[in-house]
User: What shape does this take?
Amino acid sequence: MPSDDNTSGHLCTFFPTFAAMNQHLIALELLAPARDLSTGIAAINCGADAVYIGPSGFGARAAAGNSIEDIAALVKYAHPFRVKVYATVNTLLTDEQMPQAVALIHRLYEAGVDAIIIQDAGLLTLALPPVALHASTQFHNYTSEKVRFLENTGISRVILARELSLKEIAAIRAVTSIELESFVHGALCVSLSGQCYLSHALTGRSANRGECSQPCRSYYSLFDGNGQQLAENKHLLSLKDLNLSAHIHQMAEAGITSFKIEGRLKDEGYVKNITAFYSNLINQFIAENTDYKRSSAGISTAGFDPDPERSFNRGFTTYFIEKRQADIHSPDGGKSLGKLVGTVRQVHRDHIVAYLSEPIANGDGLSFFDREGKQRGVRINRAQGNRLFPVTVEGLYEGTHLYRNRDQAFDNLLARSASVRRLPVKAHLTETSTGIRLTFSTLWDVSMAVEQTIEKITANDENKFKQFVTGQISKSGDTIFYVDQVTIGCSPLLIKASILNALRRDGLQSLQEALLTTYQRTARTNMANNIEYPDRTIDFRGNVLNQWARQFYEDRGATIEEAGFESGLSIENKPLMTTRHCLRYSYGACLKEKEHRENMNTDGSWWLTDNHHTYRLQFNCRECLMQVILPGDREIVPLQAKPSTK
Assistant: This one.
């Protein structure tokens, strides 16, 4: 039965009307990052089906924490659109921190979040609220065995490792039914997810505890087994940014239903631009593939033409989604590259003349590579057509490619754009025994009716009556709705504009409240306790840092040989990083390729050096993996040979 509520003198009634016609379709989700409440709302307005946000503690981005009140406000804005909100509690926890994390999860559940993203398996043994749990990519979700195990332990969704290929994703989908989420855009960690200990080893700041110091973005020199230098002071471990915009179709067919944008530290303009871009792509895909639908509702209007090249990026790569590539890293620069906009034609004392594909404005920032291959940046003080006056012309030469990594006009457009999201509703005016009823209906699950007693006086002109009523009811103003259809099922009546306006205002307000109260979260599935962990033994890479995590794995047949790296283990001769990015491959010495094996020296280990340490590179060619190891004090490091002239 519908429920009645007298609001502002009007009778308000809502009717759940769940649309069954689209339930058989596969729902696709665009998942956007939210550094804060404002960014989360902007992402929703630009087309996100879900957002993920960090509370003030225990998130993998320690610098992006938010209050429970702000997260609750984001939930309140999101749920009428059926947009979901996920909270990150995705760090490793100590014994002392575990009770605090559990209390935090209860508060997040009370705030209305739809799921908690976790990394620490110890949480699965404790009394949590019935909120859905998502396994962070830091769980090292790399194999079908691991994903199947997590599915059987009550996890609702697995966030797959970034380095997986379409073939590997499809293989996981073939043996599981759990929701699969995958990154499609943003910064890449060079290490296998959850398997990087380099930051903690060097600075005490653990990537698994939300404080990565990003040593992968530093300079390194590379030596082969004979000590011959192959590269000097290059960003050898710094990957380009992920961009899988051309692979939405293949990823959906492989089984991905949630497409994730990285960037909880990115600013609001970045999130708006990238979210709007991928929202358009997913809409285009669904328009051409009728087996799919969006997982949320509403029509988004960005107010600008999105372009990922105009936002922060280090250059783009598709990583391993199709096959291994040699150019996945950016050795000459680890900073924002930007969009290619021209080439230097002439260099003068205080300005340059350039061939430009796009106009440059005062205040724009340009990036370029000097003759030594080092990335540099310069601000344009004044632009006169193709004559540019930078702060300095140092490093520029004829033929230099120019990339715009700060587009001031576009940044201003993003800041000014009034991105909006509206739910389409239909309005129907009917007559009651004592007055009129106005019913608003969403296209997908809730309707609301408001009534008003009036003196019934017949109007003389039916056409004018319909035009008047339609005009008044269609004024949805600054609500989250727009009225896309008005139908009239009553005889012409003389109705004051103030009455129709009040009915419309109260009806839409009541409808928004009903959308919140009728929202249903998906509860967590029950955990099976008799499922064995795929690995019989667990070393420090299992990331066991507390007694509850130890209990979780031991109860499932695993033996804990070492506690987590952050417990104080010696760093010597341990793989501080394991990665699919292989420097042998990048420098033409892959042992799987015959021509490289014949042309390159492949004896002994390879070595990386920075200003403080020397690291041994160990290669697992069968699995195409490279490990970065800090050798013991007694290990001989043969780096005496002269640098290569190649």
Q: What stands out?
A: Residues 268-288 form the longest helix (21 residues). Residues 198-238+567-646 form one domain.
